[in-house]
């Protein structure tokens, strides 16, 4: 932990985060990081910082005011916005990935982080000052059970990285470590495994990472029921007490 603390204190930090990263001190993690360290940029995934946008809605119009921190939208009006450009990495030494996942391949937050790893790998290989990655890890809310088949390369997209199962059973840190190793990405990646989240076993500790994942229990059915989006059946989207957890209606 002393090495991690030293890394944080000496680094100019960019964060991939949203409201789901909430600590036992009653603060969002980005607030804590800003108070303790040199937070320069927050990179916004799909749904925005406070999960205020529905799926497939551009975040290009979002504005936040946090003194000294620049916000970079990674879910804009064009496909190119999904990948951070080299300019957005300038002036940074460390990317902090701190966001909850649902345990399903098609949930986009860790795809955003994967695209980040790739861009950092290209940056590091170009001979510029090295950027490293630190993941504040959290449990997989869907558990360790795995289901489905690995995605074939020809079907890879923003809602599915090749080789990953529908329900992968991994934590964010484990999945990103897999990406770094499997795809030989030139990045130093470390993981913090404990101490940043509340008791993760109850609904009370759950902060919705996106509008349609209101409860931890939603994650148990999301990986399967989301497949209904490819049919003419309703998957219960935009029903607050999620119909995903009950049944779907044609």
Outline:
Residues 13-214 form the Peptidoglycan beta-N-acetylmuramidase NamZ N-terminal domain. The chain is of the alpha/beta class and 250 residues long.
What kind of sheet is the major sheet?
6 strands, parallel
Q: What structural class should be given to the helix and strand makeup?
A: alpha/beta
CATH topology: Rossmann fold
CATH architecture: 3-Layer(aba) Sandwich
Q: Provide mean pLDDT, rounded.
A: 89
Please state roughly what percent of the residues sit in beta strands, choosing from under 5%, 5-15%, 15-25%, 25-35%, 35-45% or over 45%. Answer: 5-15%
User: What is the end-to-end distance?
Assistant: 52 Å
Estimated helix fraction: 10-25%
- Listing every helix as H and every strand as E from the N terminus to the C terminus, the arrangement reads HEHEEHEHEHEH
Radius of gyration computed on alpha carbons: 18 Å
- CATH C-level class: Alpha Beta
Shape: globular
Count every beta strand, where a strand is a DSSP E run of 2 or more residues.
6
The strand line-up of the biggest sheet is 3-2-1-4-5-6
- What is the domain total for the residues? 1
Are there runs of 5+ residues with pLDDT below 50, and where? none
Treating each run of at least 4 consecutive H or I residues as one helix, how many helices?
6
CATH superfamily: Uncharacterised protein PF07075, DUF1343
């Amino acid at each position: 932990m002393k090495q991690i603390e030293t890394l944080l204190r000496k680094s100019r930090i960019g964060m991939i985060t949203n409201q789901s990263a909430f600590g036992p001190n009653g603060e969002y993690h980005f607030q804590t990081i800003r108070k303790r360290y040199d937070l320069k940029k927050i990179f916004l995934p799909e749904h925005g910082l406070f999960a205020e946008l529905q799926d497939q809605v551009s975040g290009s119009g979002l504005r936040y005011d946090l003194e000294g921190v620049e916000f970079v939208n990674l879910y804009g009006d064009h496909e190119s916005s999904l990948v951070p450009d080299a300019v957005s990495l300038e002036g940074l030494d460390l990317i902090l990935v701190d966001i909850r996942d649902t345990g399903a391949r098609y949930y986009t937050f860790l795809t955003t982080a994967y695209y980040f790893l790739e861009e950092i790998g290209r940056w590091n290989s170009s001979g510029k000052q090295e950027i490293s990655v630190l993941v504040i890890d959290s449990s997989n809310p869907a558990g360790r059970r795995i289901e489905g088949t690995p995605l074939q390369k020809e079907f890879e997209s923003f809602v599915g990285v090749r080789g990953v199962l529908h329900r992968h059973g991994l934590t964010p840190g484990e999945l990103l470590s897999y990406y770094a190793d499997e795809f030989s990405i030139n990045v130093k990646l470390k993981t913090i495994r404990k101490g940043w989240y509340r008791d993760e076993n109850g609904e009370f500790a759950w902060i919705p990472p996106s509008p349609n994942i209101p409860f931890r229990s939603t994650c148990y059915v999301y990986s399967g029921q989301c497949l209904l989006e490819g049919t003419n059946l309703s998957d219960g989207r935009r029903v607050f007490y999620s119909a995903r957890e009950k049944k779907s209606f044609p």
